[in-house]
Amino acid sequence: MIAVKRxxxxxxxxxxxxxxxxxxxxxxxxxxxxxxxxxxxxxxxKKVVQNNGRYVIVDMTESCLCYKYLPKGSLxxxxxxxxxxxxxxxxxxxKGICQGLHFLHKELISGPLVHMNLAPNSxxxxxxxxxxxxxxxxxxxxxxxxxxxxxxxxxxxxxxxYLYRGEISTMSDIYSLGMVILEITTGEKNCAVSQDRxxxxxxxxxxxxxxxxxxxxxxYPSLNHNGLQQVRACIVIGLKCVEADRNRxxxxxxxxxxxxxxxxxx
Length: 266
Fold this sequence. Notes:
Layout: E1 2-6, H1 16-27, E2 37-51, E3 54-68, H2 87-106, E4 123-125, E5 131-133, H3 138-141, H4 144-150, H5 160-165, H6 170-186, H7 200-209, H8 213-219, H9 225-241, H10 252-259
Antiparallel strand pairs: 1-3, 2-3, 4-5
Helix pairs in contact: 2-6, 2-9, 2-10, 6-9
């Protein structure tokens, strides 16, 4: 069983051998928390389209990426109902996402791979609730302007320096990761609007409603001491990740270390 992602028709993707080379490199990425890319289709064909009242023949390119199918679907189907997933499972999902991003940012011989579209619907779940990051590397397969257009659908997860200045770095992914961590931890949806594309109102509400142990236990009444410590850590991590100044965000190394109970610079 496979899941097929169809890129926009006639997307500005690399031609021929270069496209095949880029996708083959992505297919080589193997990690427990990365969706397996198993194949691709890339075909040019002639189509008749209407242009200024006349029918003309144009060359159109269709590109598809074939991923291993995961029956549970994407993370956004589950995290906004706290009765669907207990805290232990939520924490497991958070750690898995961070491990997958650590792989993309720190473990590739070719250097960091910036995801750029990290959001709950680009994270899939297997039967054991293991998270798998999908849609990685799409920024390599389409040009920057198309990537910017595509990310309009991800309001609330996009770092402000990219939204307003077009600056791309691993810190762009850290901002998106922070939003995802806050959503998983709180069970609340990041409801960004056009006037608040970086979802600062959502962040302010987390600051206000998730700071004390009493507030946390009110949300998760059955938490033990260890679980309380985990929720605290995830709130701290999430809020640090969504700092407006990217220089104040933690690296994925510090995030993974803090989740594993190690000393960090937080």
